[in-house]
């Protein structure tokens, strides 16, 4: 009888130690709820806002008066759950194609 009680106590101690160690390990890694990326909402380039052509002020609207022609050519998007508040963080990196026109005075242009 004494041996059975000691074995039971040892098994309980081993299970308790395993539970304590399981609570300490790994951080967020291995948890599929925390490892998964958030689904991104549907993102698209609006055709009305994708292009910008700037002409020299006071000039006409022909090729000789064009300072620049720019367009959004694509983007990379990634989404993740916000750390607090249950929201969504969206990171968007657009790509641009910019062409300098004959009326450009500088090699630097601000796209606004």
Description of the structure:
The protein has 112 residues and is an alpha+beta fold. It has a domain of 68 residues. It has 2 helices and 3 strands; from the N terminus they run H-H-E-E-E. The chain has a 3-stranded antiparallel sheet, with no helix packed on it. The protein is elongated, with a radius of gyration of 31 Å.
Identify the notable features of this structure and list them briefly.
112 residues, 3 strands, elongated
Distance between the termini: 85 Å
Number of strands: 3
Fraction in beta strands: 25-35%
Structural class: alpha+beta
- Biggest sheet record: 3 strands, antiparallel
Shape: elongated
Q: Cα-atom Rg, whole angstroms?
A: 31 Å
Low-confidence stretches: 1-7, 16-25
Instruction: Encode the helix/strand succession as letters.
Output: HHEEE
Query: Helix content range of the residues, please?
Result: 10-25%
Number of helices: 2
Mean pLDDT: 78
Strand order of the largest sheet: 1-2-3
How would you briefly describe this protein structure?
The protein has helices spanning 2-24, 32-35; strands at residues 51-55, 66-81, 88-100. Helices cover 24% and strands 30% of the residues.
Strand and helix map with partners:
Layout: H1 2-24, H2 32-35, E1 51-55, E2 66-81, E3 88-100
Antiparallel strand pairs: 1-2, 2-3
